[in-house]
Amino acid sequence: MNINSDSKNFDQQTVLTIYAHADDEVLPAAGTLSLMSKAGWNVRCLILTDGSFSSSPVKGTRHQEADAAGKIIGATYEFYALEEFNFSTQAVIKVTEEAIGRCQPDLIITHAPQPEKYGHRDHEVCAIAVSNVATRKNIPLWYSAPPVFLRGFEPNFFVDITSVIEEKVAAIGCYESESNKAFMQLDAY
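The structure assignment produced for this chain is given below.
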């Protein structure tokens, strides 16, 4: 499902998440996004890659899984087909600027910056590019990282998601194609 380019309802705040891969948004932020949706925020998730290197051999599986997760947390998704492990900062800057133009977000959430060569390359590039654009456009920016990927990231803001923890678990569970990975196991998140 793609984001419609309809005009923004000015009574409603919009959060735009920008992540490299479908599932990156639910691990660290599904609970927060669910709470925001319940509070009336327009929750939009932009995924940079098409999941061609996912665990599923079936094309489009990650998009279907993301759409299912979005139904649980109250989010709509837009997918790009940047090449995994090979997209540039400039490509992400362009995509981010275009998305900001369409969505007019009040807040952006993306990957936490990671020490170079320590985290996932796609996450690093995404964090750098999105941070660049959000800073230049003066849009508030939150970083997120699941506990298993904190490596050097020290959060200074936490959201209590106790009331929506079941939604978070269910949204993560939508990514069945990734369920064999250690970080997708219940005890990891």
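Interim note for the steering committee: The longest helix spans residues 121-136. Confidence is low (pLDDT under 50) at residues 1-9.
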